Amino acid sequence: MIYRIPPEDASPFFRFVAKKCYTGTDMNTKAFCILSLLLVLAVIVETSAQQDDSALRPFLSLTSLADSCGAMLEYDPLTRSGMISARGRVVSFVVGAPWILLDWKQLRQVSAPSDTGASVEVARDFADVVMAYFAEPEQRISKYTVKAIVIDPGHGGRDPGAIGEFDTFRIQEKDINLQIALRTAELLRLRYPDRQVLLTRDQDMYPSLEERVEMANAIRLRETEAVIYVSIHSNASFNRNSRGYEVWYLNPEYRRTVVDERILKEKGEDLSAIINTMLEEEFTTESIILAQKVYQSMGSMLGTFTEGRGIRAEEWFVVRNARMPSILIEAGFVTNREEATLLANPSYLRRIADAIYNGIVGFIDHFER
Question: Would 161 disulfide with which of 151, 155, 198, 300, CB 3.0-4.6 Å?
Answer without folding.
Answer: 155
